[in-house]
């Protein structure tokens, strides 16, 4: 262990971390410099339930007031624009795992600063096995594990199963996304059902996928489901 620590220290001295955004020297342990982090589009003014960015402070957006989703709250660290969108795309579609680790670490910092309620477990949104095989990893699971490490070891639990393959939500108009994922998820809860869980995903757009996941967990007996995402579109 001592030898590994020395090697790690020497490695950081010879090859210091570089900011993935601007290319300048980054801080130790995070491939993002302080300046670039400060410039990220944080999702500060948003609906407390679905995380939709709002022009002025309001507890809930009109849509959530009219038809509340199955989840209780949404913590979205950033708006899905600019550099954040670029990092997500690099992670998700170009297998840039370093970008994923930066997003996870920065999201954890925002969640801690916001005082997000601590769930009993983090539940990644599952991919269908064919899509996972094609991509090589589940980005939601990797983000959940980064959040767990940064936030005191909250357990990561695969409590949802994707029952069928569905067309990518991003390829569909908003009006069709709810129907596309309806009934696509099934909960797999242990005998001792957790009362409070947080779903984890990379980006929330219409919220249809996360709402369907929350519905499956609620039907299985979970009392409260929150949503934690890197970014809100």
Summarize the structure.
40% of the residues lie in helices and 15% in strands. It has helices at 2-14, 34-39, 62-66, 82-94, 97-114, 129-135, 139-150, 174-181, 208-219; strands at 74-79, 121-124, 160-162, 185-187, 196-204, 224-232.
What key attributes describe this structure?
single chain, 233 residues, alpha/beta, Rossmann fold, two-stranded antiparallel ribbon, 9 helices, disordered N terminus
Percent of residues in beta strands = 5-15%
Work out the count of structural domains: 2
CA(first)-CA(last) distance? 43 Å
Structural class by secondary-structure content: alpha/beta
**Order of strands side by side in the largest beta sheet?**
1-6-5-2
* Cα-based radius of gyration, to the nearest Å: 18 Å
State the shape.
Answer: globular
What do we call the CATH topology of the largest domain? Rossmann fold
Which consecutive residue ranges, at least 5 long each, have pLDDT under 50? 3-11
Count every helix, treating DSSP H or I runs of 4 or more residues as helices. Answer: 9
> Main beta sheet, described?
4 strands, parallel
Helical percent range? Answer: 40-55%
| Series of H and E elements | HHHEHHEHHEHEEHE
- Give the mean pLDDT: 92
CATH class category name of the largest domain: Alpha Beta
Number of strands: 6
At CATH level 2, the architecture of the largest domain is: 3-Layer(aba) Sandwich
Topology:
Layout: H1 2-14, H2 34-39, H3 62-66, E1 74-79, H4 82-94, H5 97-114, E2 121-124, H6 129-135, H7 139-150, E3 160-162, H8 174-181, E4 185-187, E5 196-204, H9 208-219, E6 224-232
Parallel strand pairs: 1-6, 2-5, 5-6
Antiparallel strand pairs: 3-4
Helix pairs in contact: 4-5, 5-7
